[in-house]
Design a protein that fits this description.
With 430 residues, the protein is of the alpha/beta class. The protein is 36% helix and 21% strand.
Length: 430
């Protein structure tokens, strides 16, 4: 990906541009696309710079830096309502961002409090990048933070911009303090995504930041909110039921719930109606071509197939946890051999995958010693699954689909998500 954290057009201004910066080690692409879909659902003129390219009003533009410069000029001239920029941590950490330009920023996650992850080089970049993004948000802007990640939460009290915290549980200590102080917050409770009144009022108070906030088509009206009977409390409003979101596997994938919360908080700060947020959440799935490897869910030969590009044990944990919450149904795992991981990390991948009830298929040749290390991880579990090898992914798919039954799930861990999805699409058409 081109270095895209900064262009000469993005100079500090007295008022922020209607520009949203999103960074983090996981979830930023999904969050960016969710927010973009919410803006487009209101027919707002919108742009997105994601890992798959630059899009303006649903059209992908050739190149990256040149079209993005055009987008920034259009924002400054009021020709676009809003633009979203997904920011890769290494690029942001090395190139930087101008201060006070962005109306909104969001940090999805750094490590989810995983100590091994926090010590990794990737996470050091991520922590530096989140500081840069926080400074890039205008003092009158909004910074959306994941309160379940301590490394992200540290930013809440260090910058002048308004912080919106989101958390998976209403009893998160930081979220509870924020709610008690009358600050905007968003959380999940019994499968429902809930926002407090300060967050809903924030929309009106931000009307001077950007044209998107005072366009009649984007105004959030009280008659568009759920009835009081749908609220979780006298001052709280239900935004959506995350169990009805297809990207969450009926609410099992908590990291996807976090992505929905982050995108919803940004959307509310942009004045997007609750009804629009709910409608998009209930239909959104990560696109296999725009978001390859971002927990794509496909149906192949009548079976659900989940494709993910997780590269490290800490990014696998939440995925495995969510799949296990589906219940006792079997999971067939097809995985590459993670050649970039050290021995202990690869063993940990084996231990994590060994927690699933079903079968593990290694989809490429592996040296005997490397296989032994992986197997040692798998058998650390009380009831380890069967472990087999296949010479390539295509033959592994044929093998697995000869065994699957209704209700089973195929998890494909893809080193090359685009190629894997192409193969799955061909496989499904035969």
């Amino acid at each position: 990906m081109a270095e895209r954290a900064f262009t000469a057009d993005m100079m500090p201004t007295p008022q922020p541009l209607p520009l949203v910066a999103i960074t983090g080690t996981r979830g930023k692409s999904t969050t960016a696309w969710l927010l973009y879909k919410m803006l487009r659902a209101r027919s707002l003129s919108s742009a997105l710079w994601s890992s798959s390219g630059v899009y303006v009003n649903d059209h992908r533009l050739p190149g990256e830096l040149q079209p993005w410069s055009t987008v920034v000029r259009a924002l400054a001239a009021g020709e676009l309502d809003a633009a979203i920029q997904e920011l890769e941590a290494p690029v942001v950490a090395s190139v930087g961002l101008p201060e006070g330009v962005y109306a909104l920023g969001a940090i999805t996650t750094v490590c989810g409090n995983d100590e091994t992850c926090l010590a990794a080089a990737e996470s050091r970049y991520a922590k530096r990048a989140q500081e840069i993004v926080a400074r890039a948000v205008h003092p009158d802007g909004v910074l959306v933070l994941n309160a379940d990640d301590q490394a992200v939460l540290e930013l809440a009290d260090r910058y002048r911009s308004t912080s919106i915290l989101f958390a998976l549980h209403p009893d998160n200590p930081a979220l509870r303090r924020s709610r008690t102080a009358g600050l905007p917050a968003l959380w999940c409770q019994d499968g429902l995504l809930v926002a407090n009144q300060p967050l809903l009022r924030l929309s009106a108070s931000r009307s001077s930041l950007s044209s998107v906030w005072h366009r009649p088509s984007a105004d959030r009206r009280l008659d568009e909110l759920p009835d009081a009977s749908a609220s979780s409390g006298s001052d709280d409003i239900v935004i959506t039921d995350v169990r009805q979101a297809p990207c969450t596997l009926n609410g099992a994938l908590t990291f996807q719930i976090q992505n929905i919360m982050c995108a919803s908080a940004l959307a509310l700060a942009l004045g997007i109606p609750v009804t629009t947020i709910d409608a998009v959440v209930r239909t959104f799935l990560p696109d296999t071509h725009a978001l390859p490897g971002s927990c794509n869910i496909l149906t192949v030969r009548g079976q659900h197939v989940l494709v993910d590009g997780a590269r490290y044990p800490w990014s696998l944990r939440s995925l495995i946890r969510g799949i296990r919450h589906r219940g006792p149904r079997r999971t067939f795992v097809l995985t590459h051999t993670f050649p970039w991981l050290e021995e202990l990390e690869f063993q940990e991948v084996g231990r994590l995958l060994g927690r699933l009830n079903g079968l593990i298929v290694l989809t490429e040749p592996i040296p005997d010693e490397r296989f032994r290390i992986f197997q040692e991880g798998v058998v650390q579990n009380p009831y380890p699954p069967i472990l087999v090898t296949q010479p390539d992914l295509e033959r592994a798919l044929h093998y697995v689909f000869s065994l699957t039954q209704t209700g089973d799930l195929c998890l494909v861990l893809a080193a090359e998500p685009e190629r894997t999805i192409e193969l799955l699409e061909r496989f499904a058409s035969v």
